[in-house]
Amino acid sequence: MCGVAGFISKTDVIEASSLDSVRRMTSRMRPRGPDAEGVWTGKGVALGHRRLAILDLDARSNQPMITIDGNYSIVFNGEIYNFCELRRELQANGVVFRTTSDTEVLLALFAREGERMLPRLRGMFAFAIWNARSRELFLARDPYGIKPLYYAPIKSGLLFASQVKALLASGLVSTTCEPAGVAGFYLWGSVPEPWTLYRDVFALPAGCSLWVRAGKPETPVSWNDIRANWQGEVRKQSAPELQDVVRQAVTDSVRAHLVADVPVSVFLSGGIDSGAVAGVAAGLGAKVEGITVGFDEFSSLHEDEVPVAAAIAAHYGLPHHVHRVSRAEFERDTQRILDAMDQPSIDGVNTWFASKAAAERGYKVVLSGVGGDELFYGYSHVRQIPRDAMLERAIAAIPGACSLLKALCAYLAKSRAQPKFNGVPKFMGSLEGTYFLKRGLFLPEELPTLMGVERAREGLARLGGSPPGMTKTGPRMGQPGFAC
């Protein structure tokens, strides 16, 4: 990963203090990009970058990167997997390249096509491109939101960065609390986009782009809503046909992710998801090493993933590195984990230790199966949620069932000291509501106790949605609820 940062002024002038702020932001993101640091200034703009070199390791690919004519400048975090194909097309149209990086391809494609190029990109990315002639900044983020991007309007213009903590390091951003971000964390265990913990800092939502003109941000525009891909017509396929489609898709994805000028490894747990990724990588002839984290407290227990991971590595003939985490190491690293956590989350500790193990082995690129269990119903709760939603709709359709259900849930909530039962009548019957009941932390009515009555009211109002903080996806994925 890399780190991007910048300041866009409402005037043509960049004060020394503003440039210092950009330098502070890039400095705060050093762990994201230890290989190089760059800051560039233009008329009314200052761009900063921290680089983790993956493609074209030469300094010629350091950022910020500027086109030969000086009109376009870019800071970019991510990787464009189809950049070779796009590069050949641009070369056929007369574009001359100075590097072999995907950054230069991205910049050249935008110079030729503007924002129309976004659907052509295959990859994970967050980038900012400055047009010197029009004094406009263009921000964009990949459809899955893999790469983060935040922005903060301030009195003199606009700041953006890959991390909230980087924006705070600028010294120009207010730390006034955002109730929607706090409420969202209590409800979901993470902060839902576009909110953060700070009232004046916003996340550019996944699959969105944003124009900044005269130092003022316009409304973010969705260029690829990944949820819309679930609304298409379902084509029935036989089991062998479906298996072949999935096999080809996973193989194609792994092949694309192996494109790097540095060694690649794979996070190897005891799950089918990472095992499949490791197996496909081995089948493609990639020389990858499995990285597994084991916790001493789980040693010799069912929860220990090391034995299964070792068996998978042995099956595919992969070298295998195991990093055992002791209680002492966990306690030593707690502060480092919190420092690396940009926004509060109840998840990610395992990934942090796995990333630490990979870094200790010298790896910059690691393949991961994260998301596979959700996509392929590997987790039991993912399989159960649609069934529960159907059952809830059937129950709600029975005359008089709602009154009985409310009374039963109120009794269970009190007798078992489990307040979540109180939310069943309200949220039952939809995939979103059922998911919230399964995975959420607190109910909306519990927030006043946690954060105060007024802040809870404001936070819920700003979050919107039902459940709060979640936007329904449409009739097929989010069937109407039957709240009692």
Q: Care to describe what's here?
A:
The chain has three domains: 226 residues, Aminohydrolase, N-terminal nucleophile (Ntn) domain (Glutamine Phosphoribosylpyrophosphate, subunit 1, domain 1); 132 residues, HUPs (Rossmann fold), CATH 3.40.50; 84 residues, no CATH class. The strands form three sheets. Strands 4, 5, 6, 7, 11, 12 and 13 form a seven-stranded antiparallel beta sheet that branches. Strands 2-3-1-9-8-10 form a six-stranded antiparallel beta sheet. It has 484 residues and is α+β, with helices and mostly antiparallel strands. The chain has 17 helices and 17 strands. Helix 2 packs across helix 3, helix 5 packs across helix 17 and helix 12 crosses helix 15. Helix 8 links the parallel strand 15 and strand 16. It is globular, with a radius of gyration of 24 Å.
Helix and strand arrangement:
Elements: E1 3-9, H1 16-28, E2 36-42, E3 45-51, E4 65-66, E5 72-80, H2 83-92, H3 102-113, E6 123-131, E7 136-141, E8 150-154, E9 157-161, H4 164-169, H5 179-188, E10 202-203, E11 208-213, E12 216-217, E13 221-222, H6 239-257, E14 264-267, H7 272-283, E15 290-295, H8 306-316, E16 320-325, H9 327-340, H10 349-360, E17 365-367, H11 372-375, H12 380-396, H13 401-415, H14 424-427, H15 431-439, H16 447-451, H17 453-463
Parallel strand pairs: 14-15, 14-17, 15-16
Antiparallel strand pairs: 1-3, 1-9, 2-3, 4-5, 5-6, 6-7, 7-11, 8-9, 8-10, 11-12, 11-13
Helix pairs in contact: 2-3, 5-17, 7-8, 12-15
